[in-house]
Amino acid sequence: MPFLIVTFALYHYNSIFMSVVASIKQAAAAAVQALYQQPFTAADVSVNTTKPEFEGEYTIVVFPFTKFSRQKPEETGHALGAWLAENHPDLVAGFNVVKGFLNLTVHDQFWTAFVQDAHHNVHVGQQPANGKKVMVEYSSPNTNKPLHLGHLRNNFLGFSVSEILKANGNEVIKANLVNDRGIHICKSMLAWQLFAHGDTPASTGVKGDHLVGDYYVHFESILRDQAEPIISRVLEGNFKDFEGEQLERITKLHTALHKPEVQADTEKSGKIKDEIKELSRNRTEIMQQAKIMLQQWEAGNPEVRALWQTMNSWVYEGFEKTYKRLGIDFDKMYFESNTYLLGKDVVEEGLRKGVFFKKADNSVWIDLTADGLDEKLVLRGDGTSVYITQDIGTARLKYDDYQMDQSIYVVADEQNYHFKVLKLIMQKLGEPSADGISHLSYGMVELPHGRMKSREGTVVDADDLVEEMVSTAAKYTEELGKVKDFSEEELRDLYETIGLGAMKFFLLKVDPKKKMVFNPEESIDIHGFTGPFIQYSHARIRSILREFSAEDLSSLAAYRHTGSLLPMEKELIKINEQFGEVLAEAGRELSPSVIANYAFLLAQTFNSFYAKKESGKYIYSVRDAESEDKRKLRLQIASLTANTIRQSMKFLGIRVPERM
RNA sequence: GGACCGGUAGCUCAGCUGGAUAGAGCAGCUGCCUUCUAAGCAGCAGGUCAUUGGUUCGAAUCCAAUCCGGUUCACCA
Questions:
Q1: CA of A658: nucleotide with nearest C1'
Q2: Of A283, A304, A328, which residue sits at a domain end?
Q3: Is the ipTM beyond the 0.90 threshold?
Q4: A158-190 pLDDT, tens per residue?
Q5: Sequence-distant contacts of A448-451: CB under 8 A, at least 24 apart
Q6: Strand B contact nucleotides, protein CB < 7 Å
Q7: Residue A506 belongs to a domain
């Protein structure tokens, strides 16, 4: 019979302990093997938390066992419960069976041992190193404009997932692939050249990324002005702005637009109009100039390169400030100006291997129709790269740099198709990095009135938003007046902690794959399922602990409660004990929202514990506990809860204050 | 049209590897500050889990079909 490792000795914070749920599962699997000689593993056992109306903490569903027990569910439950109570008396103190559910009462000693060892353990719930290396690429901004709301979800997700993976024992490399070249930055450069009269961040006092972004906006407005007459000419049937292939295309579009079936279909006609717009924009003088500038950049024109260097450096200075304020960091920066030519050699190899094929115009393709996708271009006829070519090359570069087991791309769900294709191509090429590629796809952040559109000026700027969140936090805090003795510096730090906490929590509490609506009023809320609620709960616990001396608190490490536990004492310890499982699940699912939900439950449970009143008395009072033993136990529980809240928020990238 | 994602309370979301009477927060309504921090707590009210069918001891959860919303299917990045 396989013996089980469920002893108190395991509860030492530098050793790996098994969670209660895992222990129960393993014990139950052993029970089934012993009682019914069935090969049953822990993973096959379904364990739930016991509903409050029944006695016990965890419940084993026994229906699956009745197949081979050949007994009624009740009888099977009793047999299983009796076996567990006899063979694991340390774990199972008692049981009852209701229909097909075996409710187990975990031995109080299990809980008290956990509190003793975990209450001051800053590594609670974490896993030791597992030897796996994971790269998380996130943020990946363009250098022509400042970060916006969409980037915030990306940044917080990427950072949080990285921290969660670290806590699960992985070595994590946080990477940022900056899109620092291309037509977009040339637009900013050109507009700056034409209109800035030499203005710099230093001369204007404008943050670098915003200054560059302002000229991008300037470019776009001029482009709009120049494109308008061309568009109207086209709509009137005057194509004098076009020649060659473009003329052919625009003529076709114009004809199509006037077909009655297209006129009736607003979606179709809208698409055609969009294409006409796009073609017209390309014919404007300013766009032509920008394109020339891009060619000069590619040819290495020293003046263009110098301007590019300068303006990018302004942007990086701005980004640096924003990242720092957000509490976001990276281990490795990649720049597209270094990677945009990569991938062509891989395509050559693929061509030789027969993974790709050439068309008559010399363009290179891959046929993915067998995989339910389309044919996909990987190299243009003139030998230049497309988006995916770069990504193929960059994937190889990253792997050459780090040989990681997994490479996670934090990118919005618009690009699901792209990453599916990328992984497939890498697999067909037999690249060692292929199987580790995964796309952490997240839904777009929308505003109450719809999607953000930069051309319509509905983009929410990240810096502005942070500023607004922080000042709102300041306003609330001042109204409550609880920290009047704080210094200027302490106050500023507190406002940052709360404002950013509210924003990060708001963006992380929802399942990443769901698109979300960003409602400014709700995101600033501090009540209910919010960051500040959890921060407040932490501050309150710290305030309780502050009543006790350092000696009092340090003596807790040697204390183990031996009496029985009251219901909410047990409940709180139980929830704290689940943190390890929660952290593991968040790692498996790459989902910070799992932790956000957990942290809220924990804070909420503590608040109930704190406020529980019977006949006018606070029955879980720490200070006025009914005995010295209970006082110590509750100090441990309070300390444990503050610790778990702090840790869980840390994995979301959110700080918790001592007072607020 | 194909592929992928979503549809759970008035609103925003948990729950989805099948388990007991579907949970939170917000908004609405009641109470509770001579309290270890009321940014809190306790309670009331609010549901055809998009629809239909199937699988089984058991379905919000799995399967199929349908309906609605989104994204995508560029020699843009």
A1: B37
A2: A328
A3: yes
A4: 999 999 999 999 999 999 999 999 999 999 999
A5: A448/A517, A448/A518, A448/A519
A6: 2-6, 12-15, 18-21, 24-27, 35-42, 57-58, 70-77
A7: no
